[in-house]
């Protein structure tokens, strides 16, 4: 049927049509923005971390007795635990660390170059108290200078991540620079350190004993490819055997830590995806029941059209093209809604701008859903014998 | 009454005649309402005033005193040092004031020394904490002053858990291997949102188990488990020196709350802080620009950027979804009424007045409201369950009280009425002859 | 024009079989104006619907313009209806969302005429039924007689070979009915074959042939008469 005729008949049902268009428009706007948020969350989660997520296990532990939490018992305890952990088959390296990368929250120091405090100060940089196997565990590369060794134990020599070194010293050679936290001896490749630090990729590494373990500490383990599940199964028992007076947290793979950090974003994205699904469902129900309600009226109309010489296919096409046209018009308004909603959402959370193709894609999706939902009642209407349909009631 | 029953019967029959369309309309409406309710529930709990009787008088203080010459750092840190706290205390302007932070420990009773200790949440604070936030005592009372003492106040649940009874004032407890005497037991108490400590988006967490004097915590080197920022601290890590070091360095971990009973007092206290900063600057300290903050308890989530933005975004989307569903449902109900239009017109032709038809419509609304309300509650429960499992820190926010339920019920009636209004008007007021002609 | 041989139609419902048409033989020639009468439930509408290919049949054969309609696909049948057959119903069956113009234009669209051609034909047929001034009205704004005239205009706009009318005046008063009859006669004189169901003996007499149907069987009064000359 001609677009003109469809529009004419839509105009005769102004309120119904307006309701339909409004609903389609808002649906499109919501679905587009939900998809956008979902994809942004996915990007955030999938961003490179500089770490081999699948090969690193972490477990938080805290001695339940006060003496074990203090030196000198603490160092001895940690070395017993590490010796035991390193003997598990599949473990390539293991170490302790006061806090692990990627994990939300934690302890930070400010850092600045001794002679240029005001210009160089960075407020919040996570620091890692750890020892030699940490580099192998994290899988970070040396960029310049040297790695820390046993000789640096307890001495104020520090390693910086590349981005932090750039921030502090720009193009200058960072090696040998003196900061408030110690002398820089090397720079390592960036890794995702702490989300809400001054920059997520800032980090400083020091070798030395933990003063105490009031907040507990982390054991961090590098496992051979594909061994993470096998090691995970034994880890808790091995740690407990090394020292029974221990509170042992859940063993987490690094990607699980990451998912925890981005849980709000992932959660919202999932919620919105569910809601988008519901909205498409609602659009389908609406299209379906619209067609269904109109079945009687439609049957009569279909009957007349068939008597006038329209084939079944033609009639089906008529019905479908009416819903296509309304969907397309609704989606057209929807594009406006979609940009409007994007702007309002951007005031509350960070959301990327709408790429041009997304509304179009969503519109196709919407068309598909509406087609599916209209198809069935329309088919039924065309099956009714025109002789019955045109009979006077 | 009889007319109502009759009308309800008619409504029910018209539903039974075409149950599928009606069910779909109801489904869509209650889906929208359910989603909206689940979000509104969270929103309500997150944004309500937990202490309406005195929220106007409670303020959190912050000061931009951390070292460094940064001239464009105006925002003070979220937590302050012991030195800051000392300077702010004792102004004589406040009617109550307390510094605080959260921590955790392992606790057991003296009688049961062999048991594995269980983890407890600590609030390290000062005498006025309980007065500030109207915390009710069941037995005993708060500390007489802010000095260090090995005495704790515990929650009712903690008392029951460790001693199996509540009147345990005078009993001893081992907390992280230190012996404390219980001097007070709180009555049932919760604060939702827990606005006295929103740092780290922890405002939906329950109140703590054990309350410990601040000075004692410094002496024993109990640190905050929320935020602990060191600025220019030079310390060798020797635990013996910790109490001294933490009190004299920028080891920032404290939040400081004051009660100011009138706007004049607020003014005075602001002036007091101003003077304080000037004195400090004169003494060569407080090198950053002045950035005193006196945030009312109701603004503190915003001030510390601890609002749940995800929830806000979801709120926007959920409202729009409700709009879609309402529009949709009214569209469907219009269709339904149109399908019945012939009957309506016939009844009018047979002499039913518009008023009679309207009361029939009201019966429809009533019936739909009841059904939609029940279905919406089911969907809202499902929604809450989903949100709780997806968004962290929302679990405590998922319950309904009678007040909320009645507001929701009212809302459902209103929406059902809206959904039915246009179709009803259209069917009962459009010219008769046009409809009968078909 | 129309030739049916031994045609039977049985309606089967869950409980009963209704033999609506039994072994009917009928021939209608080009240019005839035939009236179909019979008691209620005798199968008049059914016969008309079968002739109009709206209804299938169970036995026998039906040749329209010398071509058997048996085994034609839905598409072919639709095209056949569109080109050769015009329907007029007792209940008018106009599409209420369409204006008169759009109603009449609809079958022409199916035919694939250009818009200029459609316009010409719609206007011409509106002229024929005397409603040219109301082309933008909607059906609900017209009286029953006017609506039926629109239905006639729609039926003749495609210049069909045969008009099938099922009690076209059944819902009209006698004045309106006479107008409609005069219109049909005029159309017949222009060469269109008409088969009309009616209950009105006067109308049946005005037709140039009178077919009676009783209990699904024909009693064709003209069967034994010689065919009208030039038919
Ligand atoms: N769709 C159908 N299903 C079952 N039986 C049918 C159907 N249509 C018609 N019939 C039956 O076929 C018989 C012939 O019906 P038809 O409508 O042709 O009668 P008619 O002569 O047009 O009567 P009237 O003058 O009342 O219009 C009737 O007995 C009727 O009950
Ligand atoms: Mg009949």
Notes on the structure:
The complex is a heterotrimer of chains A (393), B (438) and C (231). Chain A has 393 residues and is of the alpha+beta class. Chain A folds into 2 domains: 3-46 and 264-390, no CATH class; 53-258, no CATH class. Chain A has helices spanning 3-12, 14-46, 73-86, 117-120, 134-138, 162-169, 228-242, 254-261, 263-293, 295-307, 312-348, 357-383, 386-389, and strands at residues 56-63, 91-97, 108-111, 122-130, 142-145, 157-161, 178-179, 182-188, 204-207, 217-223, 246-248, 252-253. In chain A, helix 1 (3-12) packs across helix 11 (312-348), helix 9 runs parallel beside helix 12 and helix 11 runs antiparallel to helix 12. Chain B has 438 residues and is an alpha+beta fold. Chain B folds into 2 domains: 2-49 and 308-437, no CATH class; 64-291, no CATH class. Chain C has a single domain, classed as 3-Layer(aba) Sandwich (Rossmann fold). Chain C has helices spanning 44-51, 74-84, 100-111, 115-129, 144-157, 174-189, 201-206; strands at residues 2-12, 17-28, 33-37, 59-64, 67-68, 85-88, 162-166, 193-197, 209-214, 217-220. In chain C, the strands form 2 sheets. Chain C has a 6-stranded mixed sheet with strand order 6-7-8-3-9-10, with helices on both faces. In chain C, a hairpin with a 4-residue loop joins strand 1 (2-12) and strand 2. In chain C, helix 4 (115-129) packs across helix 5 and helix 5 (144-157) packs parallel to helix 6. In chain C, 46% of the residues are buried. At the A-B interface, helix 2, strand 3, helix 9 and helix 11 of A face helix 2, strand 9, helix 10 and helix 12 of B. Strand 3 (108-111) of chain A pairs parallel with strand 9 (229-231) of chain B, so a sheet runs across the interface. Residues 44-45, 166 of chain C line the site of magnesium ion.
Total domain modules of chain A: 2
Helix content of chain A: 40-55%
**Mind describing the biggest β-sheet of chain B?**
6 strands, mixed, barrel
Instruction: Give the overall shape of chain A, derived from the CA principal axes.
Output: elongated
E-strand count of chain A: 12
Largest interface: A-B, 65 and 67 residues
Give the overall pLDDT of chain B as a whole number. 86
Shape of chain B: elongated
The main sheet of chain A comes to: 7 strands, mixed
Uncertain segments of chain A of ≥5 residues (pLDDT<50)? none
Number of strands of chain B: 12
Which regions of chain B have little confidence, pLDDT < 50, spanning 5+ residues? none
Which structural class best describes the helix and strand composition of chain B? Answer: alpha+beta
The first-to-last residue Cα distance of chain B is 36 Å
User: Total number of helical segments of chain B?
Assistant: 14
**Cα gyration radius of chain B (Å):** 30 Å
């Amino acid at each position: 049927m001609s677009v003109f005729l469809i529009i004419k008949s839509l105009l005769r049902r102004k309120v119904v049509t307006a309701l339909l268009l409004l609903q389609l428009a808002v649906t499109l706007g919501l679905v587009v923005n939900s998809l956008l948020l979902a994809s942004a969350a996915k990007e955030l989660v999938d961003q490179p971390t500089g770490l081999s997520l699948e090969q690193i296990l972490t477990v938080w532990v805290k001695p339940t007795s006060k003496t074990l939490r203090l030196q000198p018992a603490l160092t001895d305890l940690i070395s017993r635990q590490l010796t035991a952990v390193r003997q598990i088959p599949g473990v390539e390296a293991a170490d302790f660390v006061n806090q692990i990368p990627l994990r939300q929250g934690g302890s930070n120091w400010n850092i600045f170059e001794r002679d240029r405090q005001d210009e160089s100060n960075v407020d919040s940089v996570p620091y890692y108290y750890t020892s030699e196997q940490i580099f192998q565990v994290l899988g970070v590369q040396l960029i310049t200078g040297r790695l820390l060794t046993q000789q640096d134990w307890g001495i104020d020599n520090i390693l910086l991540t590349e981005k932090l070194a750039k921030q502090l010293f720009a193009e200058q050679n960072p090696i040998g620079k003196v900061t408030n936290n110690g002398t820089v001896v090397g720079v390592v490749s960036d890794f995702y350190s702490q989300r809400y630090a001054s920059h997520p990729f800032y980090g400083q590494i020091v070798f030395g004993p933990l003063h105490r373990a009031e907040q507990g500490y982390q054991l961090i383990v590098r496992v051979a490819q594909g061994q993470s599940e096998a090691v995970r199964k034994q880890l808790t028992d091995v740690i407990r055997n090394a020292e029974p007076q221990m509170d042992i947290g859940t063993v987490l793979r690094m990607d699980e830590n990451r998912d925890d950090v981005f849980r709000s974003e992932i959660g919202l994205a999932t919620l919105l995806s569910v809601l988008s699904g519901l909205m498409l469902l609602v659009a389908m129900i609406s299209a379906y029941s619209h067609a269904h309600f109109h079945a009687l009226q439609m049957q009569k109309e279909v009957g007349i059209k068939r008597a006038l010489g329209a084939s079944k296919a033609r009639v089906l096409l008529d019905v479908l093209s009416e819903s296509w046209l309304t969907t397309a018009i609704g989606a057209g308004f929807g594009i406006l809604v979609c940009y409007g909603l994007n702007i309002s959402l951007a005031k509350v959370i960070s959301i990327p701008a709408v790429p041009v193709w997304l509304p179009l894609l969503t519109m196709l999706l919407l068309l598909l859903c509406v087609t599916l939902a209209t198809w069935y009642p329309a088919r039924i209407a065309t099956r009714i014998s025109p002789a019955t349909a045109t009979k006077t009631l | 009454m009889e007319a109502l029953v009759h009308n309800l019967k008619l409504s029910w029959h018209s539903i039974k005649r075409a149950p599928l369309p009606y069910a779909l309309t109801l489904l869509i409406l209650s889906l929208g309402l359910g989603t909206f309710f689940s979000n509104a529930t969270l929103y309500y709990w997150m944004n309500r005033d937990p202490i309406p009787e005195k929220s106007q008088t409670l303020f959190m203080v912050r000061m931009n005193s951390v070292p460094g010459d940064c001239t464009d750092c105006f925002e003070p840190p979220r937590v302050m040092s012991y030195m800051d706290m000392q300077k702010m205390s004792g102004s004589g302007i406040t009617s109550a004031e307390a510094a605080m932070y959260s921590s955790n420990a392992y606790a057991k009773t003296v009688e049961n020394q062999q048991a594995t200790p269980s983890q407890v949440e600590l609030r390290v604070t000062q005498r006025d904490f309980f007065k500030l936030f109207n915390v009710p005592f069941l037995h005993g009372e708060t500390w007489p002053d802010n000095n260090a003492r090995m005495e704790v106040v515990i929650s009712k649940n903690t008392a029951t858990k460790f001693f199996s009874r509540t009147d345990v004032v005078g009993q001893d407890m081992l907390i992280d291997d230190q012996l404390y005497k219980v001097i007070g037991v709180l009555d049932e108490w919760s604060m939702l949102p827990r606005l006295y400590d929103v740092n780290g988006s922890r405002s939906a967490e329950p109140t703590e188990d054990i309350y410990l004097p601040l000075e004692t915590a410094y002496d024993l080197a109990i640190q905050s488990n929320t935020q602990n920022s060191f600025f220019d601290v030079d310390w060798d890590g020797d635990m013996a020196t910790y109490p001294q070091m933490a009190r004299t360095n920028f080891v920032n971990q404290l939040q400081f709350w004051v009660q100011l009973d009138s706007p004049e007092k607020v003014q005075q206290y602001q002036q007091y802080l101003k003077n304080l900063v000037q004195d400090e600057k004169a003494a060569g300290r407080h090198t950053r620009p002045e950035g005193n903050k006196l945030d009312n308890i109701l603004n503190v989530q915003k001030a510390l950027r601890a609002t749940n933005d995800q929830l806000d975004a979801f709120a926007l989307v959920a409202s729009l979804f409700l709009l879609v569903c309402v529009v949709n449902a009214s569209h469907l109900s219009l269709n339904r009424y149109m399908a019945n239009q012939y009957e309506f017109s016939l009844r009018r032709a047979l002499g039913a007045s518009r008023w009679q038809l309207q009361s029939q419509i009201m019966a429809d609304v009533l019936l739909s409201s009841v059904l939609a309300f029940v279905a919406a509650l089911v969907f809202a429960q499902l929604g809450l369950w989903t949100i709780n499992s997806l968004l962290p820190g929302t679990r405590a926010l998922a319950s309904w009280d009678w007040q909320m339920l009645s507001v929701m019920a009212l809302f459902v009636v209103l929406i059902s009425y809206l959904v039915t209004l246009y179709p009803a008007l259209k069917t009962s007021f459009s010219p008769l002859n046009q409809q009968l002609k078909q | 024009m129309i030739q049916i041989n031994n045609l039977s139609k049985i309606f089967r419902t869950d409980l009963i079989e209704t033999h609506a048409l039994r072994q009917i033989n009928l021939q209608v020639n080009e240019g005839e104006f035939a009236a179909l009468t019979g008691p209620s439930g005798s199968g008049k509408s059914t016969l008309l619907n079968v002739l109009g290919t709206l209804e299938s049949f169970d036995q026998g054969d039906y040749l329209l313009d010398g071509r058997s309609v048996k085994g034609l696909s839905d598409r072919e049948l639709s095209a056949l209806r569109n080109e050769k057959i015009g329907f007029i119903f007792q209940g008018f069956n106009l599409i209420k969302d369409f204006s008169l113009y759009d109603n009449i234009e609809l079958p022409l669209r199916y035919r694939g005429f250009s818009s200029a051609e459609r316009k010409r034909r719609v206007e011409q047929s509106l002229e024929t039924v005397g409603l040219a001034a109301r082309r933008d009205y909607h059906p609900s704004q017209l009286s029953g007689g006017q609506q039926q005239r629109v239905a006639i205009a729609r039926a003749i706009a495609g210049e069909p070979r045969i008009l099938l009318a099922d009690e076209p005046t059944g819902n009209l008063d006698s004045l309106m009915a006479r107008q409609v009859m005069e219109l049909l006669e005029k159309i017949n004189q222009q060469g269109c074959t008409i088969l009309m169901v009616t209950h009105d003996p006067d109308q049946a007499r005005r037709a140039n042939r009178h077919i009676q149907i009783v209990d699904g069987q024909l009693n064709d009064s003209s069967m034994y008469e010689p065919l009208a000359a030039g038919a």
